[in-house]
Amino acid sequence: MTDQPTSAPEGIDHAVLAELTRLRESIDNIDAAVVHMLAERFKATQQVGRLKAEHRLPPADPERERRQIARLRELAVSANLDPVFAEKFLNFIIAEVIRHHEAIAGDSGRAEA
User: Fold this and answer.
1) 64/90 Cα distance (integer angstroms)
2) Do residues 17 and 8 touch, judged by C-beta distance below 8 A?
3) pLDDT digits (tens, 9 = 90+) for 29-45
């Protein structure tokens, strides 16, 4: 949600305030897109988790994770984004995906009992 004051604070040019508002609206749109993209990603990883559980595959795949981190670091460099930040972000997502996969595997095991 963009914080748009109804009047410019004293001493701030209206043109500066308009530009600030424009930039913040852009950021808000990007944030919304990121949330929607993450939701789509997690829908796909939930399907992967169910498939892994069904075929008794381990929740984590360290080799795949290594390749994805390397790939994302390269993408980050080409996009002028800090690759260390990109790796931290992907590691956070991977940890959450593994947690979901473990939960799905646990639910699958209980269903078979």
Assistant:
1) 12
2) yes
3) 999 999 999 999 999 99
The answer to whether the beta carbons of residues 50 and 98 sit under 8 Å apart is: no
d(CA 101, CA 43): 12
Tens of pLDDT, residue by residue over 48-67, are 999 999 999 999 999 999 99
65 contact partners, CB below 8 Å, separation of at least 6: 94
Helices (H), the chain: 14-54, 62-78, 83-112
The reported pTM is 0.77
Both tokens assigned to 95? 């940890």
Burial class (CB in 10 A: 0-12, 13-18, 19+), 6: exposed
Using alpha carbons, select from 83, 92, 84 the residue that is nearest to residue 41: 92
* End-to-end CA gap in the chain: 47
